[in-house]
Amino acid sequence: MIMKLILNEKDILNKSLEKGYIDNKKPINTIKILAKHYLSIGMNVRQTIDSINNFLLKNMDKYNSVKWINSIETMVIKIHKAKDYKLLDIKQVEITEKELDTIKNIDNEKYEKLAFVLLVYAKIYNQINENDKNWVNAEHKDIFSDAKIAIKIIEQGKMIYQLVGMGLVESTVIVDKTNIKVNFANKESKVVLVISDFRNYVYEYLRWKGRNIKECENEECKILFSPTNNSNKYCKNCAKKLHNEVKRNTWHKNKDKYRNARQTKDPVNP
Question: Which pLDDT belongs to residue 177?
Fold first, then answer.
């Protein structure tokens, strides 16, 4: 799972301006980043709205201006009022020895993974909000997905409640949002783990614990994965792509032989 928080808005902006990139799964992310950029270079609200609209017209397949204009206007006005045009550029998160020891001492891998993911989120939100209060404001489904814990919503709440009972986190409900404060963050200890790739990052913790975690050998991927056996060299997605590529190459290599074999078959005694 890839963390859904956008941490590299600067890189995404450059990609959009240079190559017309749009987050097709969630175009509002691209709209937000473009709004920050255009407002930061001195455009007024109207100019920013028009610039974003023109960008989407040029680069988004089947773009419908009528459908999107209200969303664009709402986002631009919101950012203009906040006067917050800073683009996020979070490169890494540092995890300390005492933090890892606290997590390991839970002595239950499922809860350890949850605590680790919450810690990473807290450190990211500290950078986003420029504070060290260690609060997390993310949906439970994203947190548990990142932790690779597949359980029902009611069980998710129970697990967080257990961490509260251990004194590791605090939970506060404010207007339909659940904020979680991580109490065991300790930046004064020695840094022993640096996370710069937020894909499958919970595997960083498992690897630190000594679990057999590998890095995909596809140079264009290099995502961490948990191999099913020692011979696995690629993550599941890359292994599938490689297998399909081998099948295609084999077919193309032998297609003339197959065709000739069919043509030379005896129609009477095949």
Answer: 59
